[in-house]
Amino acid sequence: MLDWRSSTVRTSVLEAFVMKGFLPPQEVAHWRVPGGEEFPQPRPDEVVSFLTFHERGLGYPVHWFLRGLLNEWGLELQHVNPMGVLHIVGFITVCEAFLSMEPHVDFFRRLFSGRALSEEDPSRIAPVGGFTLQKKPSASGAYPMYSPYDSNRGWHGEWFYIRNPVEAPFPPFIRRMPERRES
Q: Is 83 contained in some domain?
């Protein structure tokens, strides 16, 4: 449950992500580092992304299933935490690569549950990573086991800007809190 803080990302780090295959080249994704601002102020054609999301398989442009989940849940990309991105990307991979099917939201809901995370004040949901996804206990034997390879510590300070593709856009960055919903 985190709040915004200044980004620690530098151009050399994004260039290294391109070399590792985590990000497309700057000419394709039009990524850029923040200019020292305390919280994100993307241009109208940009969204905020995080290094750890791309390490966990977030592609560019993003898969239609992730965009659909964000739209259905009324979330922006920064509301999801790194483990949530890993769950979604892993689910897409299992469906497409192993089950030879398109991902489906009903199947996803059968395996995973999501909820908003409150900070000290129960009515205030964390603006960064304030929505978490967990694998349902009943799905443990029916779904591949996996875990992240490192800690998520400090991930919310590793943000940068990336172009929001017109042909397959993310929900726009409007710097709002996720809202608690009944289902």
A: yes
